[in-house]
Amino acid sequence: xxxxxxxxxxxxxxxxxxxxxxxxxxxxxxxxxxxxxxxxxxxxxxxxxxxxxxxxxxxxxxxxxxxxxxxxxxxxxxxxxxxxxxxxxxxxxxxxxxxxxxxxxxxxxxxxxxxxxxxxxxxxxxxxxxxxxxxxxx
Length: 138
Known about the structure:
mainly alpha, Arc Repressor Mutant, subunit A, 3-stranded antiparallel β-sheet, 6 helices, 69% helix
């Protein structure tokens, strides 16, 4: 019997653990990297938008953002609504981003080694469909 959910979880844990080993000497962990990557491509988001996009509980996002702010990688500012906080990358994070991105891409290259374009296309379709299926439950 196949246990696809278990295999997905195990692969994600191995990838995350390896990424942590690569990124931690550069001052980041994989959970922090996902936030920085998201902010790089989306510029500025509210904490709620980040939480929803990354599918992470609000208290977890708040703790991680507090740590990133203490490290000088993000800036939080008030929105129009006093309860709303916007998050963006700091100049220091913008400067370091290319180094972090290269490290993440290098790991992806290792993980995807020996997969051809057709396999990657199937991989992307399967992940997309699985996410869509799971979102019908949530």
